[in-house]
User: Fold this.
Amino acid sequence: MQQRTALQSFRYRWRKSLPFWLILPTIVVILIVQVYPAIYTGWLSLQEREPGGWLYVGTKNFDRLFAAGIFPESIGHTVVFLLGYTIFTLTLGFLIALLLKQNVRLSGLYITLLFIPWIIADVIAGLVFRLLVTPDYGLFSGILQNPALIPPNGLSVLTATRPAPWFGNFPFPPSPAMIYLILAASWRALPFVTLLILAALQTVPAEVIESARIDGATGFQLTRHITVPLILPAMVVALFNLIIGGMNGVGMVFSLTGGGPGTSTYVISYLLYVIGWGQLRFGRAAALALLIAFVNWILIFSILRMTRVNESRR
Assistant:
């Protein structure tokens, strides 16, 4: 009788703990690939590599980072890049999705071709776009460098200097290389955004659109007051993807402009690469990585907050 009671107790405890054992592999993976690197990055940001080993320096890595002139400049470049990248990609993706929703002829072929850039790696896409405007043998270099088309001396995208800033030291207007980088990054991200918005458009009830048309709503009013609010969750997901990718992506900058000309395309993710792997200042790179993570969280929570406010007003 006592053995049966012990066996029942063991089976009961096993059933109660079974969910934990089922999710334990996932917990271990998260601890290895997320929690441990985050903790190690925090520890590394307070250290400095010396010939004799690691030396604790406190917040000096952050102080040195803030004191470097390239840091505020890279923040300005990142702001310009993110604004141009997200606005252009979302707008163009929304317009293309509206066209594809009209069930135009060969729309399936167009969707297939549209998806091709998404499967190309950032580094490869950047290299291809660089070859298009490379002086002397680039496909578009002869057109861009023609003084008759672009006076007075033509345009060399990868070497043209940045115009004088309009607002103090803020890097606007951007250099031609930054504009070209925005176009290349948008081309790379456009398939995902377009297909995501197109899928959301398919869920908009046709009855609602038809009723609004009968009431005399124009095409712009339909888009502004019906279509956009109904697909807002998909737009937010697309915006998340663009912001996170734009903040942390370095492959396109590395292969397309290399941060140049000069430092005119030094976005903050590329600065992290230069400090960490170019200068081997791992403590300072870890400090910058923590700042980038903090900015990512602020952007995400801000977008979620604005989305909730908009949904409460509807």
Remarks:
- The two ends are 65 Å apart (CA to CA).
- The chain has a mean pLDDT of 85.
- The domain at 70-313 is CATH 1.10.3720.10 (MetI-like fold).
- Strands lie at 47-50, 53-56.
